[in-house]
Amino acid sequence: MELLKKLTEAFGPSGNEDEIAEVIIGEIKNYVDQIRRDRLGNVIAIKKGKGIGKIMVSAHMDQIGVMVTSIDKNGFLRFTDIGYVSPYTSVSQTVVFKNGVEGIVSREEKKEIKDVKLGDMYIDIGASSKEEALQRVNIGDFGVFKSNFVVNGDRISTGALDDRVGCYAAIEAAKRLKETHADVYFVFTVQEESYLSGAATSAYAIEPDCAIVIDVTDTGDTPNCHPMALKLGEGAAIKIMDRGMISHPKVKNFLIDIAKNHNIKYQLEVLEGGATDGAEIHVSRAGVPTGAISIPTRYIHSPQEMVDIKDVNGAIELLVKALEEYRGF
Length: 329
Hints:
By secondary structure, the chain is α+β, with helices and mostly antiparallel strands. The protein contains 9 helices and 17 strands. It has 2 domains: 2-63 and 159-325, Zn peptidases (Aminopeptidase), CATH 3.40.630; 65-145, Elongation Factor Tu (Ef-tu), domain 3, CATH 2.40.30.40. It has helices spanning 2-9, 18-28, 87-90, 130-134, 161-176, 197-206, 249-261, 278-281, 309-325, and strands at residues 34-37, 43-47, 54-60, 65-71, 77-82, 94-97, 102-107, 121-124, 142-145, 150-152, 155-158, 183-189, 210-217, 236-241, 266-270, 290-296, 305-308. The chain has an 8-stranded mixed β-sheet, sandwiched between helices. Strands 5-4-9-6-7-8 form a 6-stranded antiparallel β-sheet. Strands 10-11-17 form a 3-stranded antiparallel β-sheet. Helix 5 (161-176) crosses helix 9. It is globular and about 65 Å long. It starts with a helix and ends with a helix. Zn(2+) 1 binds at residues 60, 162, 215. The active site is at residue 192.
C-alpha cells in the first residue's frame, strides 16, 4: 500500500515524467537485470529469461494535468488540459504546480455549469497582478490535481491511479517473478495520456514477440452509469476490445486460460470509449500480438479515482503467471 501511495503522489503529468521515472527506477532496479531510460524518457527494465523470445509489459507512468496558457492583468491563469480533463470535475479543485505553488480552479459566472468549457475556466493562485503571478508560475508550466490517499476497507481512492496502479502491478510482478522462458521487458511509458508516444517508440525499439498492457478501465457499477459488464471487486479484467485495438485472440485466450488454470478471478472487458498503449504497440513494425490486463476503476480522469485492492492483487497474480508460462505462440 505504501508503494502505491508513493507512486500516486509523485509528480508526472504527460510530457514531464522525470520525478515519477526516478521513483519507479528506485523501486524496480534491484529486481531486474538491466534498466535504462530511452531518449523519449520511457523507463525500460529487462528481466532475462531463457531466451525464448521477448515479451513486453507496458504501463504508462504519466498522469493527466493542466498547462498554463496565459495570465491576465489581474493574475488569473488560463490553462489547457494535458490528457482529457473534464471541466465538471475540475471546478473548485486544487492544482499543484511542480514548484509547489497551488491554485484553485474556478469558472466564469456568465455561463451555467452545464455549458462551461475549459476556456471558460481559470486558476486562482492568489496573485493580484500579472507581474505577481509571473513570480510564481510561467507560461507552459505543468500542474496536476491535488488529491488524498484514502483507504476504506478494500477500496482505495486517490489521484493518478490511471496508471500508477498499473505501474504498481508491473513493479510487484517484477519482484515476484522467479524464472521465465522469455526475456521480459517492463516498460513504463511516457505521454500515454497525450499522444501514446512512449508506447510507439519503445515497442519499435524492442520489437517484442508479444505484449501485455496494464492499465485501468471503466466500470458499470455506479448509479445510472453507461452499461458495462465490469464491477469493482470482481477481479481483474481481460480486454476484448477498446477504441484503440481488438486484443489478439491468442493473447486474450492465453490470459483467460491462465486465469482459469490458477483459479484467478477475472472479468471480460469491452471498453467503448478510450484506448491504451496497446493502440500503438500492436501495429508497431510488422505487428505485435497484444492483449491487456485492466484494473476496474471508478471516476477515471478525476482528482479522486477508486480501485479495489482485490482486483489489483488479482491483476498482479495474473500477470506473474502469464509471464512465467509464456513460451511464444
